[in-house]
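fwd from M.: "can u put these together and see what the complex looks like"

so here's what she sent:
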Amino acid sequence: MTPIPNPRILYASIPTGYPIPGKNTKYDDSEQIDLENVPLKGGYLTRTVLISPEPWLRERLRDPIEVSCASPMRLGLPMVGSGLVKVIRSEDPKIKVGDFLAGIIRASPYQSVDIDAWGPSWLTKVQKLPGKDWTAVPGVLGSPGTTAWMGLKEYGDLKKGETIYVSTGAGALGSMVCQLAQAAGLKVIASTGSDEKVKYLIEVIGVDYAFNYKTTKVDSALSKWGPIDVYWDNVGGETLDAAIAHCNVHARILACGYISEYNGEEKYGNLAWIFKKRIRMYGILMSDLVPKWGGPFFEEVYKLLAEGKLKTQEHIVHGLENADKAWVELLQGKHLGKTVVVVSNPEA
Amino acid sequence: MTPIPNPRILYASIPTGYPIPGKNTKYDDSEQIDLENVPLKGGYLTRTVLISPEPWLRERLRDPIEVSCASPMRLGLPMVGSGLVKVIRSEDPKIKVGDFLAGIIRASPYQSVDIDAWGPSWLTKVQKLPGKDWTAVPGVLGSPGTTAWMGLKEYGDLKKGETIYVSTGAGALGSMVCQLAQAAGLKVIASTGSDEKVKYLIEVIGVDYAFNYKTTKVDSALSKWGPIDVYWDNVGGETLDAAIAHCNVHARILACGYISEYNGEEKYGNLAWIFKKRIRMYGILMSDLVPKWGGPFFEEVYKLLAEGKLKTQEHIVHGLENADKAWVELLQGKHLGKTVVVVSNPEA
C-alpha cells in the first residue's frame, strides 16, 4: 500500500508564558506511514481517536535543566499526551484489532511501537462508558478521573459530614473530585474562574457552594462556608496559602497542581515543590502521638541512654524566681542545651 | 503545721514580642500552703524539683480570641509548663511518697489536686535516666524527647542512607532528632544560631554537617549538603520555604513549630497553620498511585456512571491540527468541561 501522511504536532521551542501554537508547537505533515507494512515487532498499530489536552503537559515544555515531576520534552520531537486510540493491526496476542486503548499517545493520526517508544507501555484497554460517548473517556478514565479517584482514596481520608474545598472545581479533574467527595457524604465548596462555571457547579455538578475566584476572595468564601477538612489543590500559590488558614485541625491538603504558576504569571515561595516532588507534610503535636507511642518510647530511650547512644546537654538555672527569665532566654536562643530550672533538690 | 509560702509565677499581661519578666509574668509570694493539712481528695501533694521552660508555652500567652493548638492561658493564674515533681504525700494507691513524676506542672514549689487542676492528669511516673542527673529528664522524657521520638516513628518513615535536615538542631528537641535520625542510619544536616552551637553539633552530637543560619543561608547550605529526604522543621517561615526547594521526591516534612513567628518578628504566609492545626499535606501524582489503585478504580467508576451518579462534561474540538490551540485555551481556562480533540471517528 502507498504510504500516506502521518502528520504530527512537534515541540518547536520552549514557551515563556502561555505556549503559542505555530511558534512553540508546530503542525508538521512531512512524515508518512505505510499502514499495511509498518513493522509491528510484536506490538500493534493504532489509529488515534481522541487527544486529551491536559494542564500537566505544560510542565514538560521547559529547559531540561529545571527539575520537575514530568520529564522535559525534547525539542523537535512530536508532542505526546493523553488520548484514546483504536487498534488497527496487532501482533500482540493480548491486543485485538478493534480494541480501544487509553493512555499516553503522541499527537499524530497513527502510531506503533516502531514510530513511538511511548505508546504501548502507557496504554490500558478501555470500554465505552455506560450511557456516554467515547469523548467521555479521557475525562473519566484519563488522568483527571484517575487522579481524583485514587488521590482521594490514598490521601483524602474522607469522613461523612466533613467539608472539602476544591479549586478549579469545574475543571475535568475538579468536577470529578467534587462528585466523588459528595458521594462520600462531604459538603463541597468549589471555586472556578467564571460565573458560567459557577452556575455549572451549582446546577449540574450539584456542589453545595461555588464561587468565582476572580470576583470573590478565597479567604472570604472560606470564612463564610468553611472551615474545611480537606483541600484539593490544583492551583497552588496564594489560593493554597489562603486555604491553609481555613483548615480544621487534622485537615488534609492534597496538592495536585499549581496552575497559577505553570505559565510564569506568579511565583509564590516554594509551595509548588510540594506537588512537584510529592512531598508529604505533617503538622505534628506531641499530644496526638502519646496514645499510640507512649509505651515504646520510654523503653527505647532508657535503652539508648544505658548504651551511651544518646547525648544530653542541660543549661541549668537555679530558683523558681528565675524560671520566667530562663524561659525568655530560651525563646531568644541564648543558651546551649535543654534549659532546666532547679526548684528543689531531688535527693531531699 | 504552720502554713509556709508557696510562691508562684503568675501570668500578668499578654506580651507583644518576647515576654518581659516582671511585666508579662510576675513572681508572687502571697499564697501559702499547709503541707501537712492541705486536702488531697484522693490525689497527692508534690514538691517541685525541676521546671522545664519550653518554647511552645509562648503560644499560650495570647489573646484568647486567637486560635492555636495550645489553649490560651488565663491572665492572673499561675504559669504552667513542663517539669519534674517528687511526691511528698499521697492518698492515691498507685502513687507512692518518693515517686518522681514528669509532665505539666504549675510554676510553684508545691502543688496538689486541690491547688492545681492541671497536675495529676498530665503526670507520668519516671525513673532517673541511666548515667544521668535528674536534670536530664525534662529534655529526654519531657516534650522535646517525646516529640522527637514519636514524631519520627509516626511520620518520619526514615530509611537508612537518607538525609535529614534539622532546624534548631542544637536545641533540646533538635538534638534528640539529630541523634535518633543518626541512629537510624541517616546523614544529618543541622542548623543553629551560633558558632558555639555549630561546634557542639559537630563535636558532641556528631552530626555530619552543621551551619549557623545567621551567617550561612539555608539555601546555600542545602545546595551543598542536600538534597534532603526529611526535614524536621522547628522554625517555619523562610527556613521552611527554603527547605521545600531542596527536598527529594517523596520527602517528608515534619512541621513541629515555627519559632520564627512566635514572637511576632516575622509573618510568612500561613505556613504556621500546618503545624498549629496538624495538617497533613501530600503532593500527589497519578503515576505513584496506579500500582495500588488501578484495579478498584475502573470497577467503581463504571458502576458510578451506570448508576447515573457521575456527571461528565466535554469541550469537544475537531482535528489534530487544532490540538495545540485547544490545549493553550485549556491552560487559560477558556472552556467548560474536559477538553477532548477528536482526531478520527471511533466507530470507523
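replying to her w this: Chain A has a mean pLDDT of 86.
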